[in-house]
Amino acid sequence: MPRAAKKPPENLTLIAEWPLSPAATLGSSVRAKGILLEIRARLPLKLRKALDVRGSALILRMAEGAEADFAAISATVEKALVGIESLEIIPREIEDILTIKTSERHRWLKDGRLPSAGTRTVKLRGRARKITFHVFDPRMVEDLLNGDRVEAWREEDAETAAENRRRAAWKAKLKREAAKTQPVSPDSGRDAKTGQKLAGWDEFEREFLR
């Protein structure tokens, strides 16, 4: 069955653009998309897709004849962008900004190296369930990025893991040696010197020790 012809794009002659500063995006396309979604949430549902992000800039495109909506959305965007650099950073954004794994985020959050700025609870679209997650201060994240702290933390974690492995191996060795030197109980049915099972012990135990 042949595909239906695509509807030709509308003549989007009303265009506005708002560049996002490096302090706002911290060099992350994921963060830029997060800012877009944050601002879209303040717009009427049917008009949200008129606002998009290209690179590090928000772009509003609307068709001729929608001047009133265009002006209203533009005003909302401009208002929302005031102080946008202070918008809290969510988990997927901090992972992209710092180039870290989810496991690293969890570990460093737990041990205090990655301080939380609080939590946010959101409802998943189309679902009744809500999720709660930690958010982070963008200036703290910027300091970590500029100070190259992440690599230092990874080196610390590697050293700690190596030390833990050495301790585990040493404990296992001590346990094995202790097992070898542990005295054999006289009624165990084993030779006190060799530790081997004595011949006929099972029959003797059934006849006389029970």
Automatic annotation (TrEMBL):
Ranges for region Disordered: 173-210
Name this protein carries in UniProt: Uncharacterized protein
